[in-house]
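Protocol check, entry for the methods section draft. Step 1: assemble the input record (protein sequence plus ligand SMILES). Step 2: submit for complex structure prediction. Step 3: store the structure tokens unaltered in the notebook. Ligand used here: flavin-adenine dinucleotide. Step 1 record:
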Amino acid sequence: MTPKTWNQAEYWGLGYDFDPQWTLTPTQQALQAKLIQVCATVLRPNAIESDRHLIYPRKNFEALAALGLLGLFVPKAWGGLGENHVCAAMVVETIARYGCPSTAMCYTMHLGATAAALFRAHSSSSLQDLLQRLDQDVLIGTLSYSDPETGSHFWYPVSSKAEQLDDCWQVSKKASWTTSAGFADWYIVQTTSPEFDGNYADLSCFLIYRDEVQAEPHKWDAMGLRGNQSGTLLVDQVKVPLDRMVGPKGDGTASNDEIVDPFFLLCSSACWNGIAMGAIDIAKRHVTRKKHVDVGMRVADYPTIQDYFGEAIIDTTACRMFTVSMGQLMDRLTNDCDWSIHADLAALPRSPYLSWYWQIKFAAAKNVAHVCDKMLHACGGSGFKKDMEIERYLRDGKAGWVMGPTNEVLRQFVGKSALLGFESLDYWNQTVNERVLHNEVKKLDAEGKRQLAESLLQQVAAEAGVSDSTVSDSTVEKPLVEAIA
Ligand SMILES: Cc1cc2nc3c(=O)[nH]c(=O)nc-3n(C[C@H](O)[C@H](O)[C@H](O)COP(=O)(O)OP(=O)(O)OC[C@H]3O[C@@H](n4cnc5c(N)ncnc54)[C@H](O)[C@@H]3O)c2cc1C
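Step 3, stored output:
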């Protein structure tokens, strides 16, 4: 195997012996080698500046565009590289590990937005035009989902809506977090559907351009991923042409399950794995060079330090292989990321594996924090200083756990669905938990039950005044009244 190089010299971190190169095609391996060089010369020096001065990494995106990476999985016929899911994970991991974790996260969001556009580009001239210019015009995309009122429940956009006017959509979106907000050139935003009737599962997506959003980048100042600029975003009753709806009306849930979740979870896991590997690399360089003259040993000669590295490498390899394996599954399900399968709007092959994507993100985000912490310990006080860069990797890696879907939410989803079934997840808060309801009512004495019954009957009467069907369809009324009786 050719040695890994860095600025024409041998790489100072772990070599290819510790990378799963056999999962990449020769073309992908060549792309990776080129990308590592760009990381050495452009991305990494910019990462230090981005972190220090909160600079958005647009220059890094220009370097990625020069390699054709903004259109990584855009079909070749549309001028893209026509690459697959495994390649996407490799590219994100490589950027995070050798170059700039903030850029890797902005790029993850760009890939998520690109995938959402490709998913429904078949009959949209707006989307096709955009997708063919990504690299040439360095058009950075992102996903704007999280709502200020629902926090990390990004699938629940209560502050957003869309309406159909005569010949356009009027889109209103309020997002609490959007990576690249104000810097991206285009945004995929999710709102409730036009003619929304109270069912939050009825979601639609829109393509919105830079001059149609209001952002507040001056407010961004965070512990890590400081170049990521994940600020607020406002789309204030913006009128867009009809073909800027991405997919049909009400396609949001399908788009989430088939594209946004799988791509975000795959690529962000790769980002956390890349940060973990980056920290191991930096720590290796330090411990193999630092000597203690009194005992004549390098730090790397202590078994304690060797154990730190052994465990960090094994745990990170497990996360990387898990992530690659999900990329391989997605490739197999889609004939290597062939977007033409989605000309059939009902084709949703990635969706049934949601719980697997949740698991890779949980594992990778949990691992990165632990590994960076241990690598800092291995470097001692020297690691605590900024010039070694390991403290930056540690701060950047901390974003993994808290980014939605957060690790608390993910382990709940996995555990709850395993024990109680997928329906029990109740994303949009629509199913009554009868056990909880009965248990709470049981705690009331007769007077308490009477008061509750009266207040419920008043509510029923008020709702009946608004809409008879709402009351008669209510899933709450009957069991609760039975319980009280
Ligand atoms: C660096 C960064 C970049 C981001 N980029 C984007 C982006 O590009 N687009 C986008 O749409 N969003 C983005 N986000 C937002 C992200 O996806 C989450 O929405 C956000 O991190 C949630 O923060 P919050 O303060 O609202 O947390 P909250 O939702 O208030 O969570 C607080 C705590 O409650 C826990 N919690 C929440 N719900 C549950 C539950 N049901 N069960 C158990 N525990 C629960 C959480 O895990 C957490 O511990 C980004 C976030 C970060 C940190």
